[in-house]
Amino acid sequence: MKPLLVEMTFDFICPWCLIGKRNLERVLEKLAASRPDVEVTVRWHGVQLLPDLPADGVPFKDFYLARLGSEAAVQARQEQVREAAYHADVDLDLARIRTMPNTANAHRLLALATGQGSARQVDALLEMLFAAYFQRGEDLGDGEVLLRLARQCGFDPRRLESALFTDGRAFVGTGAAQVSQAVPSFVIDGRLSLAGAQPPWLMLAQFERALQLRPIAEALAS
């Protein structure tokens, strides 16, 4: 049986993407227990939610005040995120975030690293990037930060420097990122899709449905 392909579209500045990733991991654990015969391949597709941000980013608090209109609205939105993160067992410290970064270099770095490291290394780098932003409030628009995180995951930073630009040029994604600008979103086995940080039970149902559809798709293709 060929591996079940799962493609996730994400941006580093979206807390729902980290929540969605954690929910996906729970689903993969359940699937491995119930269907040990099914191998799963996960591909990450980055997309910039805010490609027009300046290269140095903008103040985090000012960005959300302008976007949501009031301090009360910002607090309400952040409380909603914290509640969802708690149920997904995701650590967030939004109070430490000072900058809403331009994520183009972070996406380019991860894309270049994907061709140089193992799937485990790439996932570790993705986790490090999320943690740097949402737990420690580090600036993902800072090239030195990005290269340090890559080094900690076993990558040679000298081989990743070509991904970094100082002019804020937009990141051009590939694959599923070209199809959907919604984050997080998931495409399962090239047939079924999910948008948003859906609960694990719903995601698992779609995974099982994708497996059920395989014989039908194979019969139609023959």
From TrEMBL:
SUPFAM superfamilies: Thioredoxin-like (SSF52833). It comes from the Bacteria. InterPro entries: DSBA-like_thioredoxin_dom, Thioredoxin-like_sf. Residues 6-199 form the DSBA-like thioredoxin domain. Coiled coil: none annotated. GO terms for molecular function: oxidoreductase activity. Gene3D superfamilies: Glutaredoxin (3.40.30.10). This is DSBA-like thioredoxin domain-containing protein.
